[in-house]
């Protein structure tokens, strides 16, 4: 399991067995970046330089939407890990 922030921009997704795309609403991303002092406009400016969310969703094998509480997110992560362990018999 590896994290590659510019996976699609470097066209590296073909090297991998599975691509998990984690996304969140703009409002949630704003809240998550408050310690960086990034405004909604700053986040949108930065994201405009990358491939679209729709492209990344269409080219991922698993899409996870971070839209709940921390506890709900942990549950989603655990279910995804279990799915991958069963698929790859780890």
Q: How would the global form be characterised? A: flat
Strand tally: 2
Share of helical residues: 40-55%
The biggest sheet amounts to: 2 strands, parallel
Q: Give me the strand/helix succession.
A: EHHHEH
Descriptive notes:
With 90 residues, the chain is mainly alpha-helical. The chain is built from four helices and two strands; from the N terminus they run βαααβα. The chain has a two-stranded parallel sheet with strand order 1-2. The radius of gyration is 15 Å and the shape is flat.
In brief:
By secondary structure, this protein is mainly alpha-helical.
Please outline the helices and strands.
Layout: E1 20-23, H1 26-32, H2 40-47, H3 53-58, E2 62-65, H4 70-88
Parallel strand pairs: 1-2
């Amino acid at each position: 399991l590896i994290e590659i922030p510019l996976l699609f921009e470097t066209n590296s997704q073909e090297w991998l067995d599975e691509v998990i795309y984690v996304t969140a609403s703009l409002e949630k991303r704003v809240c998550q970046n408050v310690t960086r002092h990034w405004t909604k406009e700053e986040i949108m400016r930065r994201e405009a330089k990358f491939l679209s969310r729709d492209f990344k969703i269409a080219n991922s094998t698993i899409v996870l939407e971070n839209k709940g509480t921390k506890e709900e997110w942990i549950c989603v992560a655990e279910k995804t890990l279990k799915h991958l362990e069963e698929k790859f018999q780890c």
